[in-house]
Inverse folding.
């Protein structure tokens, strides 16, 4: 099993890169695990307080559960992936069953910041994009999908997203094996990445071990 980590700032185009990886490989060969599903369970905290919490720092993620699920998938076991509601900022009671696949993609802004998770990855990717482009995408997404106003998004960007990006996300770029500039628009870099993944799968080699 190959574990591919895909990091990058909010709105950088990570989802587009993941989609193109899935499209380039045989059907049902890829399992995607979004980091966002593993936010700590804060359902016991009042909504007003949850809305003010910082969700862009490593401490917001339950890394131990994410790593344990990856270990189970590597052992051929299915896992119950948590579900998360961005409107109420809380973990839901429902889970999603994921089975082991040849390729597991772990995607999220902070996935290269955790050493234990990073050490489990076979390929580490950082999707880069201009800050203005990322902000525009975040405004569009949060207003449409998360019920926020443009001003709410801008305030959050200035107070949390931008400083956390500079403190945690941007520095994690140094751990990447491949940096994809221009986000999901860089078809050449994405093609090189998918070709490399296919070559590893075809040779059955994973860091010198049989898949």
């Amino acid at each position: 099993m190959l574990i591919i980590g895909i990091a990058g700032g909010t709105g950088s185009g990570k989802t587009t890169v993941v989609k193109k990886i899935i499209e380039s490989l045989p059907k049902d060969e890829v399992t995607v695990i979004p980091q966002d599903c593993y936010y700590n369970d804060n359902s016991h905290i009042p909504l007003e307080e949850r809305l003010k919490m910082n969700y862009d720092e490593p401490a917001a993620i339950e890394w131990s559960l994410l790593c344990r699920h990856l270990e189970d998938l590597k052992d051929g076991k299915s896992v119950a992936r948590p579900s998360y509601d961005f409107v109420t900022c809380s973990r839901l009671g429902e889970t999603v069953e994921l089975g082991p696949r040849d390729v597991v993609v772990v995607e999220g802004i902070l996935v290269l910041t955790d050493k234990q998770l990073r050490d489990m990855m076979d390929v580490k990717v950082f999707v880069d994009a201009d800050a203005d482009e990322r902000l525009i995408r975040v405004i569009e997404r949060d207003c449409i999908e998360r019920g926020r106003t443009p001003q709410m998004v801008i305030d959050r960007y200035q107070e949390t997203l931008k400083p956390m990006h500079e403190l945690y996300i941007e520095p994690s770029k140094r751990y990447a094996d491949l940096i994809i500039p221009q986000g999901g628009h860089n078809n050449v870099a994405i093609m090189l990445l998918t070709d490399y993944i296919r070559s590893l799968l075809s040779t059955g080699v994973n860091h010198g071990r049989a898949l």
Summary: The first strand starts at residue 2 and ends at 8. Confidence is low (pLDDT under 50) at residues 207-211. The longest helix spans residues 150-169.
